[in-house]
Amino acid sequence: MRSPELVDLVRTDPDQPPVAVIDRRPMTPGKKAVFAVVGLVAAVAWALVAFARGETVNGAYFVLAAVGTYVIGYRFYARLIEYKVVRPRDDRATPSEQLENGRDFAPTDRRVLFGHHFAAIAGAGPLVGPVLAAQMGYLPSTIWIIVGAVVAGCVQDYLVLWMSTRRRGRSLGQMIREEMGTVGGAAGLIGVFVIMIIILAVLALVVTNALAESPWGVFSVGMTIPIALFMGVYLRYLRPGRVAEVSVVGVALLLLAIVAGGWVASTDWGQDAFTLDKVTVAWLIIGYGFLASVLPVWLLLAPRDYLSTFMKVGTIALLAVGVLIARPVVEAPALSSFGIHGDGPAFAGSMFPFLFITIACGALSGFHALISSGTTPKLVEKEGQLRMIGYGGMLVESFVAIMALVTAISIDQHLYFSMNAAAGLTGGTPETAAAYVNGLGLSGTPITAAELQAAADSVGEASIISRTGGAPTLALGMAGILGKLFGGGLTAFWYHFAIMFEALFILTTVDAGTRVARFMLTDTVGNLGGPLKKFRDPSWRLGAWIASVVVVGLWGSILLMGVTDPLGGINTLFPLFGIANQLLAAMALSVVTVVVVKKGLVRWAWIPAVPLLWDLAVTLTASWQKIFSDVPAIGYWAQHRAFVDAKASGATEFGTAKTPEAIDAVIRNTTIQGVLSIVFALLVVIVALVALWVCVKAFRAGGLPTTEEPDVTSHRFAPRSLVMTDAEREVAAQWAAHDAATGAVRAPAGAH
Length: 752
Prior knowledge:
Elements: E1 7-10, E2 20-23, H1 29-51, H2 59-86, H3 95-98, H4 110-121, H5 125-133, H6 138-165, H7 172-211, H8 215-238, H9 243-265, H10 268-274, H11 278-294, H12 301-326, H13 337-341, H14 351-359, H15 366-372, H16 386-409, H17 413-420, H18 423-426, H19 430-438, H20 449-458, H21 471-486, H22 491-526, H23 541-563, H24 569-598, H25 606-628, H26 636-648, H27 660-701, H28 726-742
Antiparallel strand pairs: 1-2
């Protein structure tokens, strides 16, 4: 039974049903008991992960520890942030309601938006980062992925989304400029945009590597585009508001595309038409990024991301079930010698700071702040949904990272390093790779060349030696776990399914990110004033096309550079991506801290300030090492000097560069990467120092004005969570009756 005195219905118009439900009912004893059990199970799982060793450690403990921590964090810590900092008001119109134009601003059902937001933020990081970080051992990675998400990553995503929603969907760089003044704003605008370009290039590079020479992947991922267009038209014109209905149709078509991809790949014409090299795939991704940026958001971007969420969440959930049932034994140590000495084959560098840089999006990601201040605030219906979308979406991504880590640490360590060490180390053949990894001093039985070849044969590949970048390792681990769950004989199917899954997973981040970068560029150009001020309107079509061409041209050129990089683009660009991504998070947390202090909430400023200080310590240390280290495997300039000296000595090949042209390419690439490392670090230091100065001023003044927009009254209703409460269901029914009586075309959110 609902207690009327504990549930308030908020009306903004006497002729309309309520626009908000304020539910103050306390937690029931049954719910309290459930949370107590969840907390106890999580505590036991954490103890087993932290202290158990050997064959007693299996992947199920990681799943239980993660899920239990997420549930407690979302229910209590996120609720604390909501009550003390965000203080949402559902009687206040969001930007999507105020500025609805059917292109960039469009009130979107919270289920579709949650799917879009999660799909947009969940890219290469939570899949690739934990797989690479597994070389340092499972314990530090597990702690950072789970705890880091709860206290850092989710906090950033939630609070940036709140800030942008209160500012008509302003981009991160623009909010830094408006809240921190000219100097900090200029550094923020430039830094955010340039970092965004690097991030998009690396994300696109991972997709390119996954889809190249994979006709199954190219066909299946490509089919998601016409399916998304159909879904967009279906929801917009054919059956407005029928989210559940179109979801069933879309998922059925997606599954058909996956199955059809396997059939197409088995035919001669399919092999000829869809087996594409890296450069061709890169150009196709560049073209897709442009279209996703300029087409109306309801037509392609939102439905495609929502569609891909079913596959993302479904696959990860299936993998979690597989781990719980199969309980794969953890093959990796809790802490490896590579984590202690920093000389790992997958990537070089000490645990602090490079473990945190490598894991990146699985715990804290600056890229998420761009989505939270890009497309999502322009689509959200109610402020009360921000916790579910911002904080909850990041929790789901963190779980993806944990599942990626479990797959990597469940693989035989000799096999793991034979896949993740560069070809220059393994030699590229089963014989040389076996000799190399057997000399690393790993625990367990040495591996043979025959076993390495058998592993490749089992997944239908000619070779898996030096398949770097993390994606093939994740696919192999997933194939092993799902193969145990469903029986033998399907390992090759699950491997290629996982490769396609990863490409689809990451591509949704590229399309949303390109659109966000477009918003950032138009905001920046609009600040110049005069005729250029028109660029501030994100829906100005000519400006959108011009900005999209510039954005796609910039990240596309870096993508092509990475595709042809003699050192292996992912190996040289991923550390820069990780550092840039974390530096971007520092910028986001800086402006969040400034706004919290400006609003007079000094008592709660520690919520964003603590992760900010940690992030600055990690990223600036990593930047220092990448710039000044004299170890070529770590320092960009040390690597640069080594190749310059080789060229000067007349060498025609050096290291992994086998031609003079390849040596020139390495010299060029390391110059670009080294310069960018310096620029990124300087810009972030400027932003952090300005943020400190503004916070001190605000503290002394007892608060300062912010650029938050004035209240605008809301005239629509939407539930707060994915599942409606009984009170929300009653109000949704009232809106359905009201719309039917008045002939309103718009279907009430959540009514279907």
